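Why should sequence recovery work at all? Because a backbone constrains its sequence more than one might expect. Tight turns favour small or flexible residues, buried strands favour hydrophobic ones, and helices have their own preferences. The token representation captures these environments compactly. In the example below, the structure is given first.
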């Protein structure tokens, strides 16, 4: 028992030492809290609590997700995206007002409203897919630019505030920031006391548009720090904003000032299931929090233009960059589909090799090195995903059918967006019965108010999601 007690004491002391050092490095906004940190240095204890998962990571213990509250999970999942570190290996990766700098380390995933053109990190691709693309100087991160193609977008992979908070709040697809609040969702209400003293982890802060055509914003409260007498001293807010996701520890005073500016509102979700509706992450393959929180092994011999562990549309070019970073020498490039060899390329050398595949399936690409060893394999899927709108005009406020086509991918959601009203969006979730029938019925409520709608079909498989968009005219 004495040995076990000493071990626990050692773990606790090691934790508090690290916690204090981390606190000294922590940026704050508004008031500083050096006095509290100084006390912690001398006493060895601190009145500032941390979440269980943070404490566990310091002591080497872990707490399984199924034992966490949804609020604890929201904090844990938000930090997957806000704490990840990455370093561009080349210039040219676009960001707001310029480019990310090669060789400079960044924290948090990039901000980009990729829409249907690019892919949202966490919803459309694994985090590890983004990290693999970062390591490939010929990937879409460096060779593609969404600026001018998609409003509020630059980088091909990214997140925005709504997809960031929706990911943390365990949704299967994002809710735009405008519809996070009680006007549009059940199970959520305005916090009675709009103050740091009432804030709780899992609360969201909504910022309405500054103008009629302006954008709104949403942030997530991830930590509330209290003194020994229970008074809130600091509140941490995490969010997706240009250039990357970020976290800010504000003093209670600075938090109140932040909340009071720009008509911000503090919301509390009392019933997560009511708030999400059918939009539950656990009903889909993505988000995949387990894979996103793991440390991936990035291939050093070859990488795909979209990274690794990623789906492609049928017939889409797959660009394989043979990098051979350790200069082992490549004897053969081997491409397989569902475990069977599709092609072998002898002595391909370094550089980009392009192929397109018209047969759907799960593919791998690996190299046989000059010494006979095998490289790590890149994994990708080739899939078909499409839909057909009715040939006749769709009448307002009437139900209708959308025909589905898919191969090596399940159609999961039809997303509708009113081109004239950002509040008017709808998710129609596709059932297994719909997939077997090859069609899904669209409720009359979807087209009640719009004249023109964007229609996105979203499909997923084990490697990620693909999207296909068409526009729909609604007539009276």
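From this structural description, the recovered sequence reads:
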């Amino acid at each position: 028992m004495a040995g076990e007690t000493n071990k626990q004491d050692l773990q606790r002391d090691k934790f508090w030492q690290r916690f204090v050092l981390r606190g000294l490095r922590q940026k704050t906004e508004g008031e500083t809290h050096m006095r509290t940190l100084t006390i912690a240095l001398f006493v060895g204890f601190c009145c500032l609590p941390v979440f269980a998962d943070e404490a566990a990571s310091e002591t080497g213990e872990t707490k399984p997700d199924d034992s966490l509250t949804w609020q604890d999970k929201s904090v844990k999942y938000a930090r997957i995206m806000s704490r990840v570190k990455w370093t561009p290996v080349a210039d040219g990766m676009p960001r707001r007002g310029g480019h990310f700098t090669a060789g400079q380390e960044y924290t948090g995933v990039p901000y980009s409203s990729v829409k249907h053109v690019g892919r949202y990190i966490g919803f459309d691709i694994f985090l590890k897919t983004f990290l693999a693309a970062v390591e490939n100087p010929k990937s879409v991160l460096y060779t593609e630019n969404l600026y001018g193609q998609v409003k509020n977008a630059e980088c091909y992979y990214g997140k925005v505030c709504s997809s960031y908070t929706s990911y943390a709040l365990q949704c299967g697809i994002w809710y735009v920031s405008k519809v996070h609040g009680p006007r549009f969702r059940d199970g959520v209400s305005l916090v009675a006391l709009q103050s740091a003293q009432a804030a709780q982890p899992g609360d969201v802060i909504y910022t309405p548009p500054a103008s009629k055509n302006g954008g709104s914003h949403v942030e997530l409260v991830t930590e509330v720090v209290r003194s020994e007498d229970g008074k809130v001293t600091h509140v941490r807010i995490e969010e997706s904003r240009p250039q990357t996701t970020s976290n800010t520890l504000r003093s209670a005073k600075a938090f109140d000032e932040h909340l009071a500016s720009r008509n911000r509102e503090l919301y509390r979700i009392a019933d997560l299931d009511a708030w999400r509706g059918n939009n539950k992450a656990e009903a889909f393959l993505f988000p995949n929090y387990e894979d996103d929180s793991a440390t991936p092994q990035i291939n050093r011999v070859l990488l795909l233009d979209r990274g690794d562990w990623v789906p492609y549309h049928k017939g889409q070019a797959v660009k394989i960059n043979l990098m051979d970073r350790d200069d082992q020498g490549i004897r053969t490039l081997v491409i397989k589909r569902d475990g069977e060899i599709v092609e072998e390329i002898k002595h391909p050398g370094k550089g980009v090799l392009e192929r397109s595949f018209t047969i759907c399936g799960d593919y791998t690409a690996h190299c046989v090195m000059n010494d006979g060893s095998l490289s790590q394999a890149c994994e990708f899927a080739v899939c078909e995903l499409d839909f057909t709108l009715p040939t006749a005009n769709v009448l307002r406020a009437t139900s209708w059918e959308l025909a589905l086509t898919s191969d090596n991918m399940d159609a999961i959601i039809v997303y509708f967006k009113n081109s004239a009203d950002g509040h008017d969006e709808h998710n129609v979730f596709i059932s297994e019965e719909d997939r077997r029938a090859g069609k899904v019925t669209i409720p009359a409520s979807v087209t009640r108010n719009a004249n023109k709608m964007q229609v996105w079909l979203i499909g997923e498989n084990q490697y990620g999601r693909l999207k296909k968009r068409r526009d729909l005219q609604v007539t009276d």
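A few observations help interpret the result. Residues 2-25 form the longest helix (24 residues).
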